[in-house]
Amino acid sequence: MGEFEWPVRVYYEDTDSGGVVYHSNYLNFMERARTEWLRALGFEQDKIRSEYQLLFAVHSMQLTYKRPARFNDALLIRSRLKKAAGASMQFEQNIYRGEELLCEASVRIACLDAESFRPKSIPNSILTEMHSDG
User: Fold this and answer.
1) Angle between helical axes of 45-52 and 25-40 (0-180°, round to 10)
2) Superfamily of domain 3-132 in the CATH hierarchy
3) pTM
4) Potential cystine with 110: which of 4, 59, 106, 131 (Cβ 3.0-4.6 Å)?
């Protein structure tokens, strides 16, 4: 399973009064990258819900902040699917400014039934694309 990259520009709204990216906005950047990864594989999350009755939700995360991102920085979010099986996915996501690592995260995603919010296995048609990188 390869790596997916998604560029993000830091806007003023992403920062605190000192021009530093507020810590929770790193989570937003990573969420966008995972959404765009699914889109690149040919899956829109609203269609996954309507066609498969499936939702993806963050189960847990572990983050390490290395360096601050600042207003107007061009960032690159690198996402790598480490494992996808059953009703969960495990991602490694890192945020870079150029070659400088700013934040690293391990993200576990739960796959849930859209109605009951109980764990539901990832359909084989989606798993196949995830494992082949589209």
Assistant:
1) 60
2) Hotdog Thioesterase (3.10.129.10)
3) 0.92
4) 59
